[in-house]
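Lab notebook, bench 4. Still working through the backlog of constructs that have no structural model yet. Next entry is a single chain of 100 residues. Request: give me the structure tokens for it.
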Amino acid sequence: MRKTLVTTLALVLMLSFTLAAAVNAAEPEKGGKASGTVKKVDMITNTVTVETSGGQEISYTVDPETKITVGGKTGTLADLKEGQRVTVQHKGDKAVSIES
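Model written out:
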């Protein structure tokens, strides 16, 4: 009887950890939108740092999938300049799109 109880408890414990891990993996990264001024563009690390109106500096990773628009035209990370006003759509710290 005791062996069956221990085995059952161990099985329940393993299943609860597996379920918790599956729920966390299924949650999408939080996305959002931030507006501000470009403080820094780093071509080596492919990041852009934006200072929000509240003075907070946030760095976003830019990859080939990031859609960059400057003055209504398709642009690149190199087209973003310090002091430029931008709006960044992001998921976590990854920029999905940057519009200036």
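Notes after review: The chain is about 25% helix and 40% strand. The first helix runs from residue 2 to 26. Flag for follow-up if needed.
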